[in-house]
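To whoever is covering the structure queue this week,

Two jobs came back overnight. Logging them here so there's a record in the thread.

Job A:
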Amino acid sequence: MEEVQSYYELMLEKDGIQAENELLAALQQSGIFKKCYAHKSRVKPEKKLVEKIERKRKEKLDYNLQCITDVVGIRLVTLFRADMPSVFETILDIINHNYSLDPNPFLKEGLEEVTIYYTNPNDNIRHLIKAIALKTNLGVKIEEKLSPEEYSSIHIVARLKKRVPGLDIGSNQYFIPVEIQIRTVFEDAWGEIDHKYGYVSRTGKEVGNPIANPENVLHHLKVMKKFSDACAEYADAILMEATPKPDKVIDNSKILSVFADDDVIKTFHELGVDSDDITTYLSARDLRSEAEKLEEKERAGGFELFLQAGELFRELSVKYEAQEINSDNRKHYLFYYYVKMNESLCLLRTNRQEYVNIAHSNYEFLLEHYQDFPLLKMRFGQSCGKLGRLEDALTAFEGAYIFLTEFEKNGVVFSDSIPKIDYEHIKTHLPKVYGYYLWKKSDALNPNITDQANHKIELLSKAYDITNETLKLNPDMTVLHNNQLYYAVSICEIANVISEQDKYKYIIDSIEYHLSEVEKKCDLETCEDIDVLDTLLKAFDYIGKKDSLLKIIDRIVPIAEKALSTNPCDREVMLQIQSSAIILKLKYGC
């Protein structure tokens, strides 16, 4: 019987080598190796196959050759952690036959496992990889394992087309499995040393080669892992510093939450959502509220709490990810939506690009299943805006705006996709946000070039008209009067150049009204809001109010200097505000 078993293991090793060669040739053709610093491969030899079966049978009596999932092993090693998501996404596309590759060595629908080993629960790369896996809709469970041995890597198990008929069991055909590992060069170096000394000490494998001082060795390996992790993170910092940035990589404008709605919680109870899940949801929501309070006190405040709240929401979503997203299953459909929306909002409010990227991926995934949810469209637009994808943001806001207009035209009837609380939030905030991004697009246009001047004034007037809808509902909101004043003065300046004063007279005539409303709420001696000060600077210059203008200049310059040195901000905008103040100071001879 042992001779027969050995024959099958030898046969599997021989066929495994052929499968490995075919796999390497295909991956070379795909171009994935160009995304990697290095790649390694191996086939388990007959001796190792036998050893693994014998070892595993001590834990599981019926363990056999067909249970081994790493007959062929491929390791894709990246130079940076930031490269791992792209490599992961590409290999998934190849395995799932979503990649133009002929011949494709993977068995169609042969993906079996995805395991993410991690050491840091707040690791943004892990969350991004998880988001990619969910977006790809793998059809298999994605397992995340917190490694007590400090191990971090991505493992994918899939089947190759190479069949070994001798290992068929009844009608179940046997196809050779491959385990693909993705890790950084730092993790790989540490992993090799750990496998040689730590793994042996922990598992008792290769007992013929004992390790001296195993307790000390294991301790030193843990210390070394902290150094290797720090090196990996530092390498990413160097990559980020050395990579040219687009004009506006991240937009630090505040994202407002929908007010806590007890009707949503009531719906959860009515649908039979597990009471523990509702309790966790409420805890996460309270944590997010605390983060928002800290953010009010300081622009960058609340960062850690937003991450903690986001992680609580994410952990809740994991329980529901294995189920298909189907509106017929209302309990799962709605609870999963609210959990993912809250997780993404928390990440969005960190104003850190890596976390905003994860939120953006979440929104993209949700849009595939919740197309008629306007708040989702609005949030997706805000994530695009924060990532500097201005046209995508405007397209999303336009979609949400049209949806809202049609919703009101057809008669307001609330539903799961647009409950009352969402409608009120969108109605109040979408026009303001949409107007702001229209202004951002106009800001890149040169008013001294006729075609650009015409386009610029069209965008600004659209921003004014849209924001005016929100102002009608909230006539006391200073921030809205501030925006309208800025748009109106800008429109007036351009209209004078292109001789279109009559067309935009209704906007030009509103300047004094908006200015008086802003001045009512703004004490020039104490105001710290640089956006308001910048608008007043522009307005006072337009109407020639020199004394008030000079007071503002004295406020703006030190506030801008402080923001540039201590706070996360849009540096380009802040420098522009600061330089405008200095130019006006020179203009008035001060």
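Job B:
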Amino acid sequence: MVAANKILSSKEVLIETFEIAEINFLQSFKGIKSEIVTQQFHDDVNHIAWIIGHCISHMDLYLSVFSKERKLTDKQRKYHAYGVSKDEIEQFPFSFNDLIDIYLSISEEFFGKLKILTDEDFHRIKIPDNNENLKHMMQRITLHFMGHTGQIVLLRRIFDDPFWSFVGGVSKNNRDKLRKDWIEWWEENKEAYN
């Protein structure tokens, strides 16, 4: 167990902060009713499945910095791209179940890659087609996930009011427990989202 007063390296802070964002992202749709995953609140508001897929598409891109390959298809990436026309996302043409399973494999591989890097790597590694280093990318993706998590929570409160707030997982023990519970929920319920 890590001592409470241990000073974390910048690498540890970046990874831990994104782990907190990610567990809140996952928690935001735990227990969601399958019928509201693609329910439109308003013509100008993306549905929850699109928001989730959009975050997954970004993680897929960031993993590709290391793996040099993408796990999502071109069609999936285009559908979840920033700025895509609302006319193009009216119908959700993918399996939500498959999308989440792809995300879980992306997440596991992404965090695995991050943990073997050094502090210096976070400053040294440059993101292709971008002027960022890995440190800045991590800060951006963390903020991006939390912003979209807030959108999902708001839509959930409008549609099914699950009475959950997105402030969990600050401690590692709590994150680990939340993730274990989330994975168990997903494995027991994912067939409902086909």
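Note for Job B: DSSP finds seven helices and no strands in the chain.

Please reply-all if you pick these up so we don't duplicate work.
Q.
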